[in-house]
Amino acid sequence: MADHVAVPGKKVLTMDTMNQNVKKVEYAVRGPIVQRAAQIEVELQQGVKKPFTEVIRANIGDCHAMGQKPITFFRQVLAVCLYPDLLDDNRFPEDVKSRAQRILQACSGGSLGSYSSSQGIELVRQDVARFIERRDRGIRSDPENIYLTTGASDGIVTMLKMLISGEGSSRTGVMISIPQYPLYSAALAELGAVQINYYLDEEACWSLDIGELKRALTQARKHCAPRVLCIINPGNPTGQVQSRQCIEDVIRFAAEENLFLMADEVYQDNVYADGCEFHSFKKVLFEMGPEYSSRVELASFHSTSKCYMGECGFRGGYMEVLNLDPEVKVQLTKLVSVRLCPPVTGQALMDLVVNPPEPHEPSYQTFVKERTHTLAELAKKASMTQQILNQVPGIRCNPVQGAMYTFPRIHIPPKAVSAAQENGQAPDMFYCIKLLEEMGICLVPGSGFGQKDGTYHFRMTILPPSHKLEVVLEKIKEFHLRFTQQYS
Amino acid sequence: MADHVAVPGKKVLTMDTMNQNVKKVEYAVRGPIVQRAAQIEVELQQGVKKPFTEVIRANIGDCHAMGQKPITFFRQVLAVCLYPDLLDDNRFPEDVKSRAQRILQACSGGSLGSYSSSQGIELVRQDVARFIERRDRGIRSDPENIYLTTGASDGIVTMLKMLISGEGSSRTGVMISIPQYPLYSAALAELGAVQINYYLDEEACWSLDIGELKRALTQARKHCAPRVLCIINPGNPTGQVQSRQCIEDVIRFAAEENLFLMADEVYQDNVYADGCEFHSFKKVLFEMGPEYSSRVELASFHSTSKCYMGECGFRGGYMEVLNLDPEVKVQLTKLVSVRLCPPVTGQALMDLVVNPPEPHEPSYQTFVKERTHTLAELAKKASMTQQILNQVPGIRCNPVQGAMYTFPRIHIPPKAVSAAQENGQAPDMFYCIKLLEEMGICLVPGSGFGQKDGTYHFRMTILPPSHKLEVVLEKIKEFHLRFTQQYS
């Protein structure tokens, strides 16, 4: 035992002994710049003088935090589910009550406080399947292929966990877009997978080019076993909406190259640009015929956090799996059972999202009015964002066709690049930190999402209320001009 | 590229290509027997004749599913939080409204639909810290050491993820009790850690013996690097409550052997036996003086799912970390930020659990009445369970001092053991399957939790309502006698 004697005072868990994969994890959306924003807020409260009076957080797609209002019907049903005595309250319309009763009847013991089955409440999975069928114009969806999740992130990480195996050159490689949503790179780092970058084409409105997919795949095959292709559509952080043709090409590519497809479709209602339309990977896959629909393995993801509802706090979501090996499916179900079940309030909310009021029901008009208003506001803000930013010399942004973000390219003068390097910072981190300190605006540097070498960007949400968003954009303009002048 | 050509028709994700660690995961609480129970329920609905009319599920600690009622105050506050228009509803007492307002003010944008900070809402963490201080008689708790979690399971897996590293003989070994709650073995399998079993002493009411810890540790050091010691107190599945002395001995052992302590204390209010009392590891650690309290690394876990509230569906919980290396703590916070935040409804509920109505508030009396009733019922059922089971020749059960389970030892005749082996089943699985098919009672075989070789057990919850629990126990008695006779 002598060689195992404890060293008194030495900790068990240190930077040296900890899981080294965790050390490699990065998640810029909540990274150092956001922590500094929180500090500045405390300083403002303590009366520290700043050139601004509040920090505006445009770093994360957190709708309600930016003032977006919840959908009344959803919240009414959830309130009744939580406290069923409200069933006799006259303030609630009949459809709210009947919907609440329907959900409660599907919960063990009639309570949201019970565990659900690990895959999620059966009724909710049935409603999700019917929603997918309506959305995809009749293409069949099987509730047995639906897994409710703790937000889309949970589903994505779970599927990646299933897929990552092998060592050395047979280690699973996962293709992700650059720029990407950093959940992907973080999960791959944690799971020790090989990240394979394919670059979106900024010059062509962040579109996806099959030639680039091929290039990335061919190169990756020299050192790992590429097995998975991840797509985010509509795009985060880039806001593009993929054409039907592009999706078809991607599916054909995946089929030819034997890749498992993961389609992150959490922004499926967030499409603003004329001529753009959301097509689900599932629908296109089936429209391509049985050669594809009977074979290509696909997992697609949705969430209660985005679209018009923006209910991030509930951590609701689902994934639909297709063509999964039946034995593997048993393993997947077993894996999710260890965490017991996704939050039942999130499952109940997911049910309402996929099964909103119908035209003959009393809550319908208010529901449609609220949904239309929120989506129209977002469309207006998407357009305002690209318009104002494109007026600034040195900033160029693609149209925000969908999702909730712009990812403009910013020109950073060589002197500023040098100054950043002296600080040991990425140039766009240097830029964003200054923007935060001088203007109180919290954005995320492009380096947190990945970008072509020598290009710089930031991600900004379009979520602040219109009047505030305009101020933000004008402040960015003012800052950018000053910054450029300072470093020329 | 020739060696990478896809094999048409072959799936990407198969039993051979999938994550091999996931294959090793087992979670008996929701294993094959529970799936069979669900099938039987469907068969009953379809009119298939059975020797029973309903399946009684005593396999999982799912309180509300078994008819336990939620705490009115908790549900009222949550309903108002979800639908703040209810603030003007006269049915709600003032303390409900003020509590809801307090929680909403702590949420970004005043909505439960916003993300919280990744560590959890600051106000809730403050309330948790104050709760711990009251519980532990004034020992200080720092809100910065509190992490809100998605149920206790999430916290436990997160800490294990941090702790598991190294390869071969330097791979992290984690000591867990046998019998154990299978979340532990499942998480260790998934993370590829080395599981180190230490056996609880069934003859001494499932107590923990330091000699046995030493034996297990010494043996494990020959092939791995033991770094973590996990304790469940009150015990799951074994229902024992550890004495203060035992906890002190465990802490001393961990300090001497340089082990990171993980204390699963989700049943802290579930203590029924005379002379038993819950002592938190944190409190005992501080009472042992600065030599220990300034050095031993501890993570302890709590949940909204158990105790008197039993709100499993909300997936609420917290962990408190102590003496964590500050750099490691930064890594932990980064890791949890990737999943954005725990469900905010679960966080709000956790806040109410740690901060229930006070004596001068209008909801106090009802709250105390409901809590007392639930705990008294559980105590009554704990006692009834051990009493009836111990009447059966061939079943012997320790007192259910705490938690929600009994783990009786069952005598399985050699002929039944042979019959099970012929079926390729563990003898206690064979027993439980027969019990399910013949009596409609769903329990979990002891083999799913671990037990000494040649001994057999099952885990049963004490959660069914008294009159039903009595039926369950009588049916087990009847079944056991018949089974024993059949196989003698």
Automatic annotation (TrEMBL), chains A, B:
<protein>
    <recommendedName>
        <fullName>Alanine aminotransferase 1</fullName>
        <ecNumber>2.6.1.2</ecNumber>
    </recommendedName>
</protein>
<dbReference type="InterPro" id="IPR015422">
    <property type="entry name" value="PyrdxlP-dep_Trfase_small"/>
</dbReference>
<keyword id="KW-0007">Acetylation</keyword>
<dbReference type="InterPro" id="IPR015421">
    <property type="entry name" value="PyrdxlP-dep_Trfase_major"/>
</dbReference>
<dbReference type="InterPro" id="IPR015424">
    <property type="entry name" value="PyrdxlP-dep_Trfase"/>
</dbReference>
<keyword id="KW-0663">Pyridoxal phosphate</keyword>
<dbReference type="GO" id="GO:0005737">
    <property type="term" value="C:cytoplasm"/>
</dbReference>
<dbReference type="InterPro" id="IPR004839">
    <property type="entry name" value="Aminotransferase_I/II_large"/>
</dbReference>
<keyword id="KW-0963">Cytoplasm</keyword>
<dbReference type="InterPro" id="IPR045088">
    <property type="entry name" value="ALAT1/2-like"/>
</dbReference>
<keyword id="KW-0597">Phosphoprotein</keyword>
<comment type="similarity">
    <text>Belongs to the class-I pyridoxal-phosphate-dependent aminotransferase family. Alanine aminotransferase subfamily.</text>
</comment>
<dbReference type="Pfam" id="PF00155">
    <property type="entry name" value="Aminotran_1_2"/>
</dbReference>
<comment type="function">
    <text>Catalyzes the reversible transamination between alanine and 2-oxoglutarate to form pyruvate and glutamate. Participates in cellular nitrogen metabolism and also in liver gluconeogenesis starting with precursors transported from skeletal muscles.</text>
</comment>
<comment type="pathway">
    <text>Amino-acid degradation; L-alanine degradation via transaminase pathway; pyruvate from L-alanine: step 1/1.</text>
</comment>
<keyword id="KW-0032">Aminotransferase</keyword>
<keyword id="KW-0808">Transferase</keyword>
<feature type="domain" description="Aminotransferase class I/classII large">
    <location>
        <begin position="89"/>
        <end position="476"/>
    </location>
</feature>
<dbReference type="GO" id="GO:0030170">
    <property type="term" value="F:pyridoxal phosphate binding"/>
</dbReference>
<comment type="subunit">
    <text>Homodimer.</text>
</comment>
<dbReference type="GO" id="GO:0004021">
    <property type="term" value="F:L-alanine:2-oxoglutarate aminotransferase activity"/>
</dbReference>
